[in-house]
Amino acid sequence: MGELYGKERYAASVVVHIQNFVRDGPVNNYVGSRSLTENLRLVPSQRLRKVRAADFTPEKIFAGLQGCERAVPDAYWEMIPAMLRERVGYIETVCN
Questions:
Q1: What values do phi and psi take at 35, rounded to 5?
Q2: What is the pLDDT of residue 6?
Q3: pTM for this one?
Q4: Contacts 24+ apart (CB under 8 A), 52-60
């Protein structure tokens, strides 16, 4: 693969770091603790059911953004649904 420039370089770096979407780390939201994982454990289970049932298809996620496809590389558009699926899976793991 040749050298990447601009948006392609950014998209490649984002895709490479997809595993960081579910890592625990300090959060600065002043709710519960400073740990993302510990804060997730504080969420009532009935609210988590709504997250599990949410429709994270690209059609729903990107509704209203038609015509903006060229604003960012294809890898970015593909990464967003993957990121959401990873995060929902993480929520289920932490909260079960």
A1: -100, 130
A2: 62
A3: 0.62
A4: 52/88, 52/91, 52/92, 54/88, 56/81, 56/84, 56/85, 56/88, 57/81
